[in-house]
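Go through the following before class.
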Amino acid sequence: MQNKTVYLPDVVGGGYRDFWNFKGRYRVVKGSRGSKKSKTVALWCIWNLMKYPGANLLVVRKVFRTLKDSCYSDLLWAINRFGVGGLWDAKASPLEITFKPTGQKVLFRGLDDPLKIASIAVPNGALCWLWIEEAFEITREADFDMLDESIRGEIPGGLFKQITLTLNPWDERHWIKKRFFDVKDLDVFAITTTYLCNEWLDNRDRVLFERMKERNPRRYQVAGLGNWGVIEGLIYDNWREETFDLDEICKLDGVQSAFGLDFGFTTDPTALFCGIVCTKSKKIWVFDELYEKGLINRAIYKRVEQMGIQKERIAADSAEPKSIEELRRLGIHKIHGVKKGPDSVRYGIQALQDFEIIIHRRCVNFLREISTYTWDVDRFEQKLNRPSAQCEDHLMDAMRYGMERFTQTETFSWD
């Protein structure tokens, strides 16, 4: 193995020195978008796996399928940034990364398959580090406790056990705030970082944040400065997270499917809501989602085909008739545009508030949106009869589209 000299500050940059050097049990970093928190953790993991030959790493997100395009990609980026690609072997199936000189492993797991977490073993050394990305997605503290317990047992001398959590601070009521940010514990290092510590952002990125600061100061407090979101005036409080068997739900009397599509591309994601509806019991089971940026129409079709719902009836945003027609020609024959009018959003929300919404835990983007979807307020902080423009609402819109045929009556008119 050839020696390679790396000056760490040049590779990692500033803003994370104390975080990088902390060796206690828990490191927690909440931050704004663009605060390089995930990239910094990825760099730390690769650097220290090479530094400590007996260490192994477990990387967890709530849903396993989200790992490849997030943590796995960030770790490969970190390997390349250090210029040590020849020392590592990365596999997509099973998803893992191996340090070739020692056989140390980076393993990836999702909370949607807890049995695979409980049975983790490594061939060399010890599993002593855990990285939980998008930790805000873990809504039950008991799930974190299970992960915490997975980092156990004896470890070789010179190593240390550590759990790292990275998150965006959407809701101050989250258990993470009370457990890690509202306490003084020598075994906990919790910080907040912002885009201001990211020296590699270009001017266009900074302009976006400055524009947010001017136009949406409340959103800027969370997405720009990494402060805890204060969730007041939730539009939907009629929902819960639950793991359910889709096959069993589909056997229930009177249930029907509902699919809604909201188009996006560069700034906003394409969002697909997948639900099962019972109008008699007034229940909606949200069982799957698509949430991805940069999808052209052919890519949307491929995703829908992979999900096995290309033959289903899909209600889409009527503002894009050209996209709807192209998807129809590609093979989604039952796609159609929804009706819109000056009161369509308010009416759709009112109708959905009468339903009980049960969300499968795999639908992490849906859970994030619905838990932060609030009414707008005027300059006197009085609620207005419209959703706040600072909320992410792509799946909320898609749900309204998909539920259109269940919530409209023959006598209803947008006029």
Notes: The first strand starts at residue 26 and ends at 31. The first helix runs from residue 8 to 12.
